[in-house]
């Protein structure tokens, strides 16, 4: 427990008089009060650096509960031990958003709750929104009932299946958001007011968040599904859509007008994916009949992207004489574009979507 936690003491942590023999560049030999706040981060750092040294061709994945400013360089963070109840499900949304605003883009809660027993409705609803958090996983303590999706009956299992398929379809977009976060420091999951900083009402909303131009509206009430809730939308065009998977326990999704959303196939796990899999672009035109989007691609692991071995593609769309054209505006990086089918769909509003074309795309 890298807070560090020492349960059999009054303070639940180490005595301040404990001596730590730190390296000279971080302060050297000091008592615990000097190192307490950075203890968890330094543990994550040492783990990260050890994994990186043992295999220079793989990106380490480290998960830490405790952290400090700078922890995002070394590890993902989860929000700590929570309870299997609706209040803690609700709390998980602003906690993830606050961590993003604090510089930690890769975070998420224990979906379903750690302590206590979830109900089928609670677990399905939590998985519905949790599958779209930057870091998504379920976790529960010893002694609780089984918290696997199939443990709650067929309906809950189906909700969880649909939720996870949504995440896999959105992975090209989510992966791009993480690259942009890596380069610019922007949160992956952002509060709604990021879409309009001048609207004070957006700052009060805790059940919706943004994944780039994608708006996620969840329900944390056992009485109402997301489709029954009133959704406060930022100004501009916001088109509601789904993947033919609408369900009361899944969040409602909107795509901002002027955005192009890259999505992949509904795979079962990332090991099933191929670089030649079909890619789809969902286009939501703004008031002027224009849209733009970006897609980051690389090998999926390793550090080739630091040597320009990646492909960042900027797409644009525009209506001219009742014809919608979609083209590549520019690219960055030296990675070769995969040979694959490209499917382009236009959102028409009211949840309607029309597929314009399927083409075989191979651009260098």
Automatic annotation (TrEMBL):
It comes from Aegilops tauschii subsp. strangulata. Residues 280-347 form the DUF5110 domain. The keyword Heme does not apply. Residues 1-177 form the Glycoside hydrolase family 31 TIM barrel domain. Belongs to the glycosyl hydrolase 31 family. Residues 1-23 are annotated as: Disordered. The chain crosses the membrane at residues 344-363. Residues 185-241 form the Glycosyl hydrolase family 31 C-terminal domain. Keywords: Glycosidase, Hydrolase, Membrane, Transmembrane, Transmembrane helix. It comes from the Eukaryota. One of its GO terms (biological process) is polysaccharide catabolic process. GO terms for molecular function: hydrolase activity, hydrolyzing O-glycosyl compounds. This is Uncharacterized protein. SUPFAM superfamilies: (Trans)glycosidases (SSF51445). The keyword Transmembrane helix applies.
């Amino acid at each position: 427990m890298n807070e560090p936690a020492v349960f059999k003491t009054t303070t639940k942590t180490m005595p301040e008089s404990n001596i730590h023999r730190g390296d000279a560049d971080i302060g050297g030999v000091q008592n615990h009060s000097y190192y307490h706040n950075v203890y968890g981060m330094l543990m994550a750092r040492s783990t990260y650096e050890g994994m990186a040294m043992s295999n220079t061709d793989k990106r380490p994945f480290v998960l830490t509960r405790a952290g400090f400013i700078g922890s995002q360089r070394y590890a993902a963070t989860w929000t700590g031990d929570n309870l299997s109840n609706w209040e803690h499900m609700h709390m998980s949304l602003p906690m993830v958003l606050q961590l993003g605003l604090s510089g930690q883009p890769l975070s998420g809660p224990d979906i379903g709750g750690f302590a206590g027993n979830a109900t089928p409705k609670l677990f399905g609803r939590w998985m519905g929104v949790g599958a779209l958090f930057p870091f998504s996983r379920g976790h529960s303590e010893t002694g609780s009932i089984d918290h696997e999706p199939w443990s709650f009956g067929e309906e809950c299992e189906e909700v969880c299946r649909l939720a996870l398929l949504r995440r896999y379809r959105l992975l090209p977009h989510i992966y791009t958001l993480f690259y942009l976060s890596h380069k610019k420091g922007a949160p992956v999951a952002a509060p709604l007011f990021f879409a309009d900083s001048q609207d004070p009402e957006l700052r009060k909303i805790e059940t919706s968040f943004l994944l780039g131009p994608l708006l996620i509206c969840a329900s944390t009430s056992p009485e109402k599904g997301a489709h029954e809730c009133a959704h406060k939308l930022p100004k501009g065009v916001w088109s509601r859509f789904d993947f033919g998977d609408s369900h009361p326990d899944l969040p409602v999704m909107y795509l901002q007008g002027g955005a192009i959303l890259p999505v992949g196939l509904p795979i079962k796990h990332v090991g099933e994916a191929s670089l030649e899999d079909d890619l789809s672009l969902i286009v939501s035109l703004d008031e002027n009949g224009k849209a733009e989007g970006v897609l980051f691609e690389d090998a999926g692991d390793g550090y080739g992207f630091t040597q320009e071995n990646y492909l960042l593609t900027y797409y644009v769309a525009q209506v001219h004489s009742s014809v919608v054209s979609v083209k590549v505006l520019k690219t960055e990086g030296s990675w070769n574009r995969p040979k694959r089918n490209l499917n382009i769909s236009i959102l028409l509003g009211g949840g309607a979507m029309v597929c314009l074309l399927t083409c075989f795309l191979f651009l260098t």
